[in-house]
Each structure stands twice: as structure tokens, then as C-alpha cells.
Amino acid sequence: MLLILGRLVLAAIFLVAAYAKLKPQAAVPWSAASVKTSLSLFAMQVDSYQLLPPQLVSPVAHLLPPFELFLGLWLLSGGFLPYSAVVTTLLIAAFFATQVRTYRAGLEINCGCFGPGERLGPKTLLHDGAFLALALAVTIGAFVVARQRRAGSASIAQVSTPQRAE
Amino acid sequence: MSSRINRPFVRRTTSRAPWAAAILATIAILSPASNAQTASTPASASARRNAAADPAPSAPVKTIGNRNAPITMEVFSDYQCPSCGNFYETTLRAMIQDYVASGKVYLVHHDFPLQMHTYSGQAARWANAAAMIGQFQDVDAALFDNQAKWPVDGDIEKYVAGALSPANFKRVQAILKGCTTPAPTSKVDRSLPQAEPGCPVDPYIIQDIVLGNAVPVQATPTFVIHYKGQSYPASSGIITWPILKQFFDTLLSQ
Asked: Across the interface, which of A27, A57, A105 has its CB nearest the CB of B230?
């Protein structure tokens, strides 16, 4: 039950994060142009981290929100949970490491985590740290459950398979 | 290291942001101080000549470019903040030479001198005084170009003098004659500083701080972009010119 809850929370986090980055950032209706503008605006937030060379900023900014959407849906589906949980943990760990580095460098920028407007500060580090802990817990839980299931099905198979007479 | 406003983390209120943006856009577009000023277009060169010929100082014109440009970018900046200097040198300078000169972007400067910087308020006074006689762009560039030098001893005057003709420098000095007390700066608690009664530029600096508090500006540089009557969320920090240009191109392609 806890594993399902953790998985759904992580799915919600990624779906909200993707929505916040893709939605129109001004008072305009949804359209292909509005999504393009939102991704360009997100590219400025990625750039403000001063981590990537300009030629990589745009590809990362354009790929990350769709990937977050995909990951959110994958977590929501519950399929291959150990794998989706590992990918989620690695992604959140990368975000967290980047934020810690940026905060320590004293850069006063927007986080960009859930769209524009959220400053990168202790509060951001706190919630991303909590997300990382949750992702780790879900990953461990998913592997434990998967192992128990494998062990369970192996013992059922052993019981149902007739023993060869010596 | 970027400059930080010495205050605890402040949540940006989403309900205030559209109002602030609307106020900023309206002021930028309707303000008499928002007439075009740039060295790179004939119209602005003429405006600068007229301004130089006009003996009476007027409201400071802290804008660069054509006010009818499709994109307006408002930058809240502090002359002593290293990130602002970096942003000016690496991004705004290229932008002024390219998209401002070609009439795509109208750049509006707002002073947001931070309390933590000893001379930023005084630098803003010099910039505003220069803007009152139509010489903002040159002094703005000189202050950022020499950002590593004048904060050492506060001798801003030397670099302003180097950016202006002797006659214009005298006019700027005359404007600042009554400015003897410490210059206004933004406060940590967002309370407003006092204008010195005899200092004609202080009200304009305070006006910019009011606008900045409404955004709200939490660090410098912070900028707000307007296009086709829409305001986009404020961004902070150093954005490189290729990425900013890409955003402008996306807007212009709509």
C-alpha cells in the first residue's frame, strides 16, 4: 500500500512539473506556439544555472519536460516499477546535485522545477531532498516486492512441479 | 557570485505578478520617459542631439531602442552587482547591438540599487542625471564597463566624466549638486527609502524601486519581457545572449 502511495506521489510530482513547464506562461490559449514559447522560457531557466554550454541548453530544455511527462505516466501505470523507480531516483538525484551546487555557488536564480517563479533556496533544496528520499524508498520497496514475487512464484512452481523419483 | 537581497526567502505571489507586469508594461509604454534613445538608430541619435541641445533637464530617459519595437524588456539592475555587470557585458551589450539596433527589442532600465552595495545608489544617481540630459546609454555602459574599478574607492565621477563631453558632464554635475546625503537603495524589508529634497534624481530611483518591489525583484538582475500585450514571468540571473535571442525569435515567429 505504501509502495503504491509513494509511486503515485512521484507520478504526481512529475506530471505537475511537466505541466508547469509546458503550459502557456502568458495569458494565451494552449497551442503548439504556446508550448514552444514555454519551452524557450524554460531554456532561459536552464541557462541561468550556468552549467551547460549554450548548444546543450536548448536540447535539454526541450527534452526534459516531455521526459518528465513520460516518467509521470510510467510511474502512474506501475509497469516495470523497479526500472521506473531507478530512473526517477537518478533524475531527482541529478536535479538535487545541480541545485546544491548552484545554491553553494551563490547564484540567485529561479529553480525552474515547477515552472517559472520559484526561487532556488533552502525551501527548494528541502522539497527536492524529500523527493529524493521518497524516490529511494520507492526504488528499494519496488525491488523488495519484485524479489518477494519472484521467490513466491519460484516456490509455487516448485510445489506444482512433480519431483523426479530418485 | 550574484548579488542577493538580504532578506529571507520570499514566496512570489502569483496573484500579484500579473498586476505588477501590467503596471510595468503600462509605465514602460506610456511614460514620457520611455522615448527612444540609442546611438545606433538615426531617430534616437536625433533624439540624443535634441536632448543635448535642451538646456533644461527633463525626466530621465533610461531606455534604449525604439519604443514601438514588438518586444519590451525591462531590466532591474544594480550597477555594483557583479551579476548585473556580467549580464550587461555578455548579454545586453550583444542584444543592444543586434535586436535593439534592428528595432526588435525596446530595452527599459530600472534602478534597483541594493542596500548591501555601498556605491550602487550613487551610481544610479549619476546614471539618472545623465539620463535627464539624454546621455543614459553612454554612462550606463561606462558604469558597467568599469564596475571593477569605481567600487574600490567610490570615485564614480571619473568614469562618468570619461563617458561624456565636458559640457554634458558639467550639466550632469549641476543636476547632482543638491545630492549630498547617501543615495536611496532598496530595503531588505521592502520599505521605501527617503528622497533627498534637493536631489532631483532620487524620486526616479525610488519610483524604480517601487516597481521592482511590485514584481517582486528578489535578486538582481531581474528582467520582465512583454510581447503583444502579454507579460512573461520575471527571470533572474545571467542568461546568455544565444538563449535569450532564441526566446525572442520564438516570440517573433508567432
From this structure: A27
Amino acid (one-letter) located at A57: V
Which one of B231, B236, B247 has the shortest CB-CB distance to A40?
B247
Interface contact A43-B236, CB threshold 8 A: no
Q: Which residues of A touch B254 (CB under 8 A)?
A: 33, 37
CB contact residues (below 8 A), chain B span 209-238, against chain A = 218-219, 227, 230-238
Cα nearest neighbour of B227 on chain A: A26
**Residue B13 touches partner A, C-beta closer than 8 Å:** no
pLDDT of B43 over the 50 cut: no
- Residue B10's closest chain A neighbor by CA? A119
ipTM of the prediction: 0.86
Over residues B162-219, the pLDDT tens digits come to 999 999 999 999 999 999 999 999 998 889 999 999 999 999 999 999 999 999 998 9
If we measure between CA atoms, which residue out of B145, B132, B144 comes closest to residue B174? B132
Instruction: Give contacts of B82 with chain A, Cβ < 8 Å.
Output: none
| B198 exposure class (CB count in 10 Å sphere: 0-12, 13-18, 19+) | exposed
The pTM assigned to this predicted structure is 0.82
What residue segments make up the domains of chain B, in order of their start?
A: 13-252
B128: Cβ–Cβ under 8 A, 6 or more apart, which residues? B60, B62, B111, B201, B204, B205
Distance CA A151, CA A47 (A): 48
CATH number of B13-252: 3.40.30.10
Pairing relationship of beta strands B71-77 and B222-227 according to DSSP bridges: antiparallel
Q: Compare all CA atoms of chain B with the CA of A25 and give the residue at the minimum distance.
A: B232
Q: Which of A28, A36, A50 sits opposite B250 (nearest CB)?
A: A36
User: Of B161, B188, B250, B229, which is closest to residue B8 (Cα–Cα)?
Assistant: B188
Scored b (16 or more CB within 10 A) or e, B107-126 reads: bbbbbbbbbbbebbbbbbbb
Amino acid identity, position B226? H
Residue with cell 564614480: B156
Checking phi first, is residue B86 left (phi over 0); if not, alpha (psi -120 to 50) or beta?
alpha
**CA-CA distance, A106 to B116, in Å (whole number)?**
15
Task: Find chain A residues with C-beta within 8 A of B235's C-beta.
Answer: 41, 44-45, 48, 110, 116
